[in-house]
Amino acid sequence: MDGCSDRFLHIGSAMYQTLRTSLLSSARCWDANSHQSYQTLFDRLDTNKDGKVDVAELREGLKAMGIFRHGAAQEIVSSGDQNKDGCLDFNEFTKYLKEHEMKLWLTFKSLDRNNDGRIDASEIQQSLAELGINLSKEDARKILHSMDIDGTMMIDWNEWREHFLLCPAHNLEEIFRYWKHSSVLDIGDSLAIPDEFTEEEKSSDVWWKQLVAGASAGAVSRTGTAPLDRLKVFMQVHSSKTNRIGLTGGLRQMIAEGGLTSLWRGNGINVLKIAPETAIKFMAYEQYKKLLSSEGKKIETHKRFMAGSMAGATAQTAIYPMEVLKTRLTLRKTGQYAGMFDCAKKILKKEGVIAFYKGYIPNLLGIIPYAGIDLAVYETLKNAWLSYYAKDSANPGVLVLLGCGTISSTCGQLSSYPLALVRTRMQAQASLGSSEQVSMTGLLKTIVAKDGLFGLYRGILPNFMKVIPAVSISYVVYEYMKTGLGISH
Questions:
Q1: Long-range contacts of 233-237 (CB under 8 A, 24+ apart)
Q2: Solcar repeat boundaries (predicted)?
């Protein structure tokens, strides 16, 4: 999700149309070489009349025009501020608008497929389809309506320019990117479809900065929710019908055995595996997409799911020994291992190399239902929002986006949880002192026979409890990291 909501503008229809007309009325026929229209707009934004527009003044001006996008004012000032004094004088303001208009013009031309100087609903529909967003004609008309000034249900260059003039997003990918299902929302299980980048981003340094921002967000998020994650694993392995472990009981047991800091056992390696897994999954995803998609065409949703599932499987295969170490370190008793390397050395000596791939098959099988249901639910919620609520703008807002991502991830987790539980049990078998190594099917039968179907969902409550804080923390950290790395568009 995806990842993502600060790249677009929110238009309040009635307020926007009225205020936009009053603020830009003298600039209805913009001329790239005309300073008069720029001067009028600059004078209105420069409320303290000091010959400069700072972030606060621009933010108030954007709000008055109905542009509520977080970070837009800061981004415009940062982009146009050549002398780095934190504000724009008239020359800087003019230069920024001219360059921005040129980019908007190129986007307008790419949308105007029949070169008649206007954009209609079918052209918007076709362009969105190429971005992987399947929209009905009626929904495309709703989006068109949010930009239409003269009521013709066709957008000319003046209408397009006025709508996006003070929005930092300038190309189609940026304008509609908020609908991309982003993997930024880290809930501790790296099974989601990887993030996607445009060709322009891949040829610059934006892609790796976004991966770094996402990995940092994941690290902070996992650390913040580590006690709930450890409680989940503890309940998965130790809880049963005869040994019921509740939320408070489980926390008490762990604290009594190892103190408060023991709640973070296994978190170090859980954070450490983010970087290699993200990098492998991203590179594999790009290769699988090339194999599955036609040259020059956008990849369809079902092929994206296939590529994402295969990329997830590739990454999991490469880093799976770290998954086993994470489970063993999470369940360790005080003094059992000196650290990660000591744990790896003892497993290797006692159980051999094969131990590092225990539970691998249920883990691999879990990727398919997780990624498939996650993506399908997200697409359904996204299209449902567009169908019912996209009256005056195509912008769903931050809460809707986070809601879509949270619900879809939760549904994905619910579908794959029994396999995740079996994986954890298989990884933990030797550490429980069990000499008998049970297979995946054997373990499933044993759990169902002893605890019923509910036994396959042991520990799911703390797992669900960590979703909302994990999503919230990862989103906030991601936003701050993007700003810090200079990719706040």
A1: 233/266, 233/327, 233/330, 233/331, 233/424, 233/459, 234/330, 234/331, 234/459, 235/458, 235/459, 235/462, 236/420, 236/421, 236/424, 236/425, 236/458, 236/459, 237/331, 237/424, 237/425, 237/428, 237/432
A2: 205-291, 299-384, 396-484
Domain boundaries in the chain? 5-117+154-179, 199-484
Phi/psi of residue 53, nearest 5 degrees: -115, 115
**Architecture label for domain 199-484:** Alpha/alpha barrel (1.50)
| pLDDT, the chain, mean | 78
Write out pLDDT tens, residues 96-131.
Answer: 888 888 878 877 887 788 888 888 888 877 776 665
Strand partners of residue 119: 155
Asked whether the beta carbons of 379 and 387 are under 8 A apart, the reply is no
Q: What is the DSSP string of 338-369?
A: SSHHHHHHHHHHHH-GGGGGTTHHHHHHHHHH
Residue of 193, 191, 214, 204 whose CA lies nearest to 3:
214
Tokens coding 25: 């009325």
Architecture of domain 5-117+154-179: Orthogonal Bundle (1.10)
Q: Where in 85-125 does DSSP place strands (E)? A: 87-89, 118-119
pLDDT, one tens digit per residue, over 127-153 is 766 655 666 777 677 777 767 777 788
Measured between alpha carbons, how far is 59 from 69 in angstroms, rounded to an integer? 10
- What residues are paired with 118 via a beta bridge? 156
Contact 38, 78 (CB under 8 A): no
Instruction: Give Cβ neighbours of residue 129 (< 8 Å, ≥ 6 apart).
Output: 135, 298
Closest by CA position to 231, among listed 416, 466, 462: 462
Percent helix, strand, coil in the chain (nearest 5)?
A: 70, 0, 30
The C-alpha atoms of residue 34 and residue 157 are separated, in whole angstroms, by 16
Extract the residue ranges of the chain whose pLDDT is less than 50: 1-34, 178-179, 392, 489
Residue environment code for 409-425, b if the CB has 16+ CB neighbours within 10 A, otherwise e:
bbbbbbbbbbbbbbbbb
Residue type, 326: K
Rounded distance between C-alpha atoms, residue 308 and residue 193, angstroms: 5
Could you give the CA distance from residue 116 to residue 10 in angstroms, rounded to a whole number? 28
